[in-house]
Amino acid sequence: MKDVLTGTGETPVVDAATVVLVRDGGDGLECLMLRKTQGQAFGGLWVFPGGRVEPGDGDGFDGARRAAVREAQEETGLLLEAGELLPFAHWFPPPDAPRRFATWFFLAALPAGAAEVIVDGGEIGDHVWTTASTALERHRAGEIKMVPPTWVTLHRLAGLPDTAAALADAGGGEVERFSTHMVDDDGVLVAVWAPDAGYDTGDLGAAGPRHRLAMDPGGWRYERSG
Question: What is the Cα–Cα distance from 114 to 123, expressed in whole angstroms?
Answer without folding.
Answer: 22
